[in-house]
């Protein structure tokens, strides 16, 4: 399967969806102005991701030091041994008893997932997928990830990042504890590090932390325990070993529930550091909030509908799916997906959960049949993954 082009014409979500559905094996090469990433895929599952241009702070050894799992002296000593023996750094660290194999694998997994999910923030770049049957699954590599799971997590991050940045806009912000967390309902069998890591990257446990930024899970407990004077957002990201997104989300959860208080950097007001009145928005609940959100979404839906109704476009009888320029077709599709997402949100607010099928949006009068495929010939791919989460992708062309 020859697959090459630019991310403006064929996005990372489309590429992973296509490779996953066809269960291909090979290497996906992605490159933009500053980064060069290789994603290794076996039978449609992602088994490894490597950044060729990884920054120094993202190197495994430096990540271990930043996480305070090893010292700089231990890293320097291991690097000297590595030069003499040509062994992998991880093997040296394990052999010298500096770190356990499980902790190392968890950090390796974090390194890979951070590179992988970072791809969803790319706005431009080139890609090429080469089929290579030699791609093997090594016990020391990342546990294979289903392409669909990566898409779900990537879209979740893209969707929630603006809310996190609005609430917590300055990475130099530090924190102080206001009150202790309530005791957990059940004590996990793993140690704190393992439980927190699994909470961040396990599909089953993620449901505990989805949605309205209002739950306390292992990630929040770990971050809360690590809060201390002088530790800013970046430091907490390093030592929590949860990844940037999960750490930010845990901090916002704790701020919203008033378990911690933000201390802005010198010279900044608290409102500037925390995004002004964003905290009030997150705390508004009940029927008033629901009515307000519904009104806003319906208003936006009506506005977009007036601009995107297929019949209102002067196409001189030409079907939108026959555009000769795929970039233009994708541009229209992105706007149409936003309209479908808005309709899904209205449906969820009124019914309490998402529909099983997109046709339900037509049945309740939120959309028309042509909206479910415009500007494509086939319907959009939709799957509900929970009462609040879903996957919405353009059809395979």
TrEMBL record:
<dbReference type="Pfam" id="PF14332">
    <property type="entry name" value="DUF4388"/>
</dbReference>
<dbReference type="InterPro" id="IPR045584">
    <property type="entry name" value="Pilin-like"/>
</dbReference>
<feature type="domain" description="PatA-like N-terminal">
    <location>
        <begin position="4"/>
        <end position="161"/>
    </location>
</feature>
<dbReference type="InterPro" id="IPR025497">
    <property type="entry name" value="PatA-like_N"/>
</dbReference>
<protein>
    <submittedName>
        <fullName>Transcriptional regulator</fullName>
    </submittedName>
</protein>
<dbReference type="InterPro" id="IPR037257">
    <property type="entry name" value="T2SS_E_N_sf"/>
</dbReference>
